[in-house]
């Protein structure tokens, strides 16, 4: 019997964020190179998209979060803290250290960790294609580590651990989101608003605890760039949450499609960051291997 066809809307809702998140690291890298800071970037993006989500909820006449159970609230708060707050700090720091093209490619290892969580906590089996995908993905990361591309200032192999930490955070977040949306208590819009609100509270608490007043003293132009990234991220996140909320929107399908983002980042970086980054054949090969490996892991 043939497997049921996946609705085209799932592909559109997954590839849309891939294009958006392929572009945002490029403009963020430009802002970071002009005096922006990772924590400032994360806060600005989250403030912008949270405000947009809350305004959208209010425009629909909804009072956010009041009808959700404690369990659903806990799931999306955890997803916001791990999958957004920690993940975004790590990805911005990765962009600053190794460059947008390399960082985005490493973050695409996310489906590997999402699958590992499914195997460990949900008892899903590991097939031959998954094993092959792991090998291909590791080869891609190895290719990136010796590609001698990315940030022109140079970077060390250990710096790849920063975007890799972002990949783990995003994997945890997506698994939690799929579970929470499957409960059926909330709409994608309310879920993503709660996710980002929790992340915003976590980041503000971190900034206050560490006395990070520097998030308010960056060059004014960088805030504008990060705000634009926030608008694009708002649309991308809502599309992803909508895809995950659908019966056919399995993490194993949505995650690998979104993980094609580094292909777009590599192209955008080549044309828009030539003065900051070097896109070598090794970078292109590594990005392709990571994406192919990520796809095989979740086939």
Automatic annotation (TrEMBL):
Residues 13-145, 164-298 form the EamA domain. Keywords: Membrane, Transmembrane, Transmembrane helix. This is Uncharacterized membrane protein. One of its GO terms (cellular component) is membrane. It is a multi-pass membrane protein. It is found in: Membrane. The lineage of its organism: Archaea, Methanobacteriati, Methanobacteriota, Stenosarchaea group, Halobacteria. It comes from Halogeometricum rufum. The chain crosses the membrane at residues 6-27, 39-59, 65-86, 98-122, 128-147, 159-179, 191-209, 221-244, 256-273, 280-298.
């Amino acid at each position: 019997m043939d497997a049921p066809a996946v609705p085209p809307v799932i592909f559109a809702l997954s590839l849309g964020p891939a294009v958006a998140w392929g572009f945002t690291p490029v403009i963020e890298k430009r802002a970071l190179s002009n005096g922006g800071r990772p924590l400032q970037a994360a806060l600005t993006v989250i403030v912008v998209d949270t405000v947009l989500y809350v305004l959208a909820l209010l425009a629909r006449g909804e009072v956010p979060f009041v009808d959700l159970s404690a369990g659903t609230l806990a799931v999306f708060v955890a997803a916001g803290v791990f999958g957004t707050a920690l993940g975004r700090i790590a990805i911005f720091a990765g962009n600053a250290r190794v460059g947008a093209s390399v960082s985005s490619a490493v973050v695409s290892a996310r489906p590997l960790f999402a699958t590992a969580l499914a195997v460990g906590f949900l008892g899903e089996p590991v097939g031959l294609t998954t094993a092959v995908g792991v090998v291909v993905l590791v080869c891609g990361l190895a290719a990136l580590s010796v590609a001698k591309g990315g940030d022109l200032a140079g970077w060390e192999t250990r710096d790849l651990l920063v975007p890799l930490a972002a990949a783990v955070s995003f994997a945890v977040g997506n698994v939690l989101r799929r579970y929470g949306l499957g409960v059926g208590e909330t709409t994608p819009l309310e879920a993503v608003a709660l996710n980002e609100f929790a992340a915003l509270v976590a980041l503000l608490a971190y900034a206050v605890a560490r006395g990070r007043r520097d998030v308010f003293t960056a060059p004014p132009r960088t805030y504008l760039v990060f705000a634009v990234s926030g608008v694009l991220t708002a649309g991308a996140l809502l599309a992803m949450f909508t895809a995950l909320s659908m019966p056919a929107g399995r993490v194993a399908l949505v995650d690998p499609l979104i993980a094609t983002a580094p292909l777009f980042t590599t192209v955008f970086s080549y044309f828009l960051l030539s003065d900051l980054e070097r896109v070598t054949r090794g970078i292109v090969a590594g990005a392709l291997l990571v994406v192919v490996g990520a796809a095989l892991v979740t086939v």
